[in-house]
């Protein structure tokens, strides 16, 4: 074997993790084309030139997914379990092989027909067992007492009902060929292989080649053309099975058990790593959510504080504006009274009338003239006309003590708006001096508000 072939064998072993004999077997039949050999290895197909006397020994990992049977398939499994295996179409890997098969067909056709007729009338058909317990009861009745402690007691479709309660993670399936060697089957009853699978969190399932369960667990084409026993390891996810490992060389049962146990340990480690990563991701997500929640709460508090501060500022601003408005209105009212008083002061015409009235201010006094039919508001005008009169005031008499109703409406409203609390009796009622009881020689007092 030259260096190129040795490199191809090493590359094949590195990619597929198979032994040297298997690598040589595939490469020899593919003219040492590594790509074609690897594709056949992982697809489970046999190259066209493969010899029947060679038996590859390989542990073939795969990523194919097998769905667990539905309840509908349960009803049809009993009827399909007794049917014959379907024909397998030939696969031609070269044009020369196809032409050789085609041109020799007239010679081979009579032999094919004779063989078919003989097998149909005189041949003995291989029985198809729906469950491995049926096969053991007929072929190996000595294992009837122990078969339930080794294999899962129902068909594959019953796994769906048991998954929620059993919490299995792996399915180790043994597909037995009735025409092959029963050595590995015998070893299952004298070893702790099944118990070893269960301690790893898996379930050990057995079926017979040709059964519906076997077709579901290994539906690839090589299974139909090259019938041989095998052990397959699946990962159970929900209601589907993902194939992870397949071992076809069952000649050394101890090696098979070791390889299966190592594979389960690797799967358990991967599952533990996945759970750890998921836990770390969940913890990181929780911390992120907690930080986000704290940030949102802090942001909400800041927004409330800003809103409160803004509200207080707006309230202070409104209060200030209201104060300024009131001050402006007060100034306007004072200005109005001052203008009115100024207009009265500019009129230097003395009061006229037949009667005298004494007005006493807080700082002085003044005598005015009036007639009995003059309006009582004349007192207000004459009082405001004096420099001694305050801007805001009201009047009263002493004998008898009573308010003088001489304040005009507009002036009374100003006193009210200024919150000086003027007496209602001081509001002008449009009466005359005579009607108000003010006669000659009367005296009124100015009350400074």
TrEMBL record:
It comes from the Eukaryota. GO terms for molecular function: ubiquitin binding. Residues 56-85 have a biased composition (Low complexity). Residues 49-86, 288-333 are annotated as: Disordered. SUPFAM superfamilies: UBA-like, Ubiquitin-like. Gene3D superfamilies: DNA helicase RuvA subunit, C-terminal domain (1.10.8.10). InterPro entries: UBA-like_sf, Ubiquitin-like_domsf, UBX_domain-protein. This is UBX domain-containing protein. It comes from Caenorhabditis remanei.
